[in-house]
Amino acid sequence: MSKKVLKNTFKIEFLGNGSNDKIYAEKIPMNPINKWNDIYRSERLGSGINHSTIQNESSILAVFLSFCDEELHKEPNTLTSADLKKFFYYLRYVRKPNNSKIKNKLQNERISEKAFKIYYTLVKKFYATLNLENFKQFEKECQTPIFRKTRPNPHDAITSEEFNKIINEIENSDSSTKIRNILAFRLLWDTGARISEIIKLRYKDCDFEKGRFNISNTNREIRTVVCSKETLKLFNQHLSKINDFSNPDDPIFQVSGGEKSRQISSNYLIKAMTKTVQKLKEKGIIENNRDLVLYSLRPGRAVEVFDGGLSIAHIQQLLGHHDIRTTMKYNPVIERCPDLDNLQNNL
């Protein structure tokens, strides 16, 4: 009789073959990932599921359990619907395929829809097998059997105080592109515009006397946004110094050097923001539990102007949403809207 080990990180080992298999439990330290995988595998084994199926399920579940432990710092039985949304967001939009050849060839490739559904079904099975209610509540709130292909907003909305700290950190850095980064971040904050809308701006789209910018969305629809007087002053002081080209069709945020103008990439700004936030966390200036990225500026701005008295309808126009229900999906804004009881008490 031979010993069959499913994986060296798992606690349970199987002995023998066929119906006479027995379980050998070895005493090894159990981290949260192994613990929950161990519990699930034990339940599945008791249901008569064959070893190869359990092994496959365990390897897939390890991705989910690792995310719970390393990113959320929670155990699966404590996850909220928002936590589960974060995992599926990560799975669909962040995690790359395991195949290294695909990674090298297509950097933007994501897992297939078939693979996504396998993960979804298995996580659902995990909660059902262990009689946990977390996933039922998640599906109820999503109102769909398969998680929709719309991106949730798992990141924290940045506050004006945090934003100012980030700008100060960049200003005091020795980065050769700090002026360009500050201008881009300030314009994103002032306008509430999307990153893609800002980096596509050309000189012909900008009025640097009045601080007006004509930005276009993916449907090429134009809307005019404004920046603060302080941001406008910075543009007029520094833009001509940092850009090599200033023709009407040249981008206002340019890659330095080269024989012709090129707009900067969104990835560059994303990395610059992430790096700055990490430095501030290391210095203890921003709390470690704050999930702040470049995409935090847009919902953060929505909250800022909402708290300042701007109506949801005007915020919809500011953000360029066709449907006001899209604006209402910004969780921090919803949390600040009065419920019916509070509204009734104020009548």
Automatic annotation (TrEMBL):
Tyr recombinase domain mapped to chain residues: 153-347
Keyword Calcium: no
Keywords per UniProt: DNA integration, DNA recombination, DNA-binding
Listed CDD domains: DNA_BRE_C (cd00397)
One example of a Gene Ontology biological process annotation: DNA recombination
Domain of life the protein comes from: Archaea
PROSITE patterns from the UniProt entry: TYR_RECOMBINASE (PS51898)
GO molecular function, one term: DNA binding
Protein name: Putative phage integrase
Naturally occurring in which organism (per UniProt): Methanococcus maripaludis KA1
